[in-house]
Amino acid sequence: LSVALVFGGVNCYIVSVTSWSPDLSSHPGPRYAALAATLAADIESGQLPAGTRLPTHRELADVLHVTVGTVTRAYALAAQNGWIEATVGRGTFVRAGRIARKRDAPLEEAIDLAQNRPTLGPQLEALASTLRALAVPMQLAECANYAPPRGHERDRAAGATWISQLGYTVSAESVIVTSGVQSALFAVLSTVAQPGDAVALESLTYPGISALVQQQRLRACAVALDAEGMRVEAFEAVCQRERPRVLIAVPTRQNPTGSVMSTQRRRALAAVAERYDVLIVEDDIYGPLLEPRPAPLSSFAPDRSFYSVGTSKALLPALRIGFLALPAPYIDRVTAALRTVGMASPILAEVTSRWIMDGTAARLLSWQRAEAHARQVIFERVLGRYEVPREASGFHRFIELPEPWKAGAFAEKLREQRILVAPTEAFVVGHGTVPRALRLCISSPPERADLERALTLIADLLAHAPAHAAAVY
Ligand SMILES: Cc1ncc(COP(=O)(O)O)c(C=O)c1O
Asked: Is 303 exposed, middle or buried (0-12, 13-18, 19+ CB in 10 A)?
């Protein structure tokens, strides 16, 4: 234990470099909240006197086998509560004076299995490094101004490279840079469909897609799903009955079911679209996470397909860059529609393009896949027997609830246990029935331990279903 005096402004600290290694085992809930709670307890008990210098984020992360992000969140929470203070260049210290512990502070936050997002890991280091490289006036000048309406040439080229790596060979000329996939879907739909037009949708789909269809006053026609996603005969029946203008599909890791459509199914769906003159809008936002993967649906009907991929799930939500590949005759009109939602930030597009072109994106994706795999193993062990459909693997899992549970009641029960899940009815298209099922976003909790705790609790609840159906309404 080394001791020194540091004078900084009005504060005078006695600095003790401590090898504090907290025991988090008695604290449930997310690891960052457990760490903040332990920190508060150790300050109160006098184990960490005022002025103590705490371990660095990295040191503590290594000791506790958690991510640096978890320590950062815990320290941020503790600083917010006034227990500790970070001084740039010197470190993090227990605050001098009386430690005012906010007893009512919401330390035990819920574990979030509701929001579908990648686990944060090496992306932060990569982003810091790319931003440092960019932080030179000459470099910034390249991306500091408005970009051309379709995006900078180099960004479109990077988008074309990425899409081609995913199995759909396209040129930079046919690619538009967007601020995420949602913007791309908006621009395409508002260009190719008129209010009142029928749109074929997966019967369970991402609520953002349903919202767009509703907002543009299109007619949603639900197409039944099976373990591979959209069923061909069901799509054909909708084509005959409703004459849809557009088909919107998420063929790879469908949201919410997680299903992956086989190559054969993609080819068959494209052929039906061709026969009934239906345009295809393919949302491949989860596609980069699957390897090996079938070629995009769009590759089977490129002349009628609008293909969109983005960074939000594969790399980093905060970049929210999308690349839209589309047939030449539509480029000008879709570009004009995009102007109403605004251009993608050229700085974020620059970061994305650099990551694609220098191999960072490939490295981060392979980390994300490995992390997702480790979480899938936990899922299989704890909850695998409830899953539908069984062959898919990935970010989100769809489980079937045993009788007498209904999705809404089960979600409510989980909320009481501080586990958040998305309401299943949000995925239902039109007036379809709400399945007795739940989507679980297994990449979302920062730590695998949090995921395991949440899944174990879910398994316990499922194993002890209430005897009376009335109990779950
Ligand atoms: C299927 C699907 N498409 C699109 C999005 C949104 O993508 P972005 O953040 O690129 O707009 C999501 C986000 O949850 C999604 O699940």
From this structure: exposed
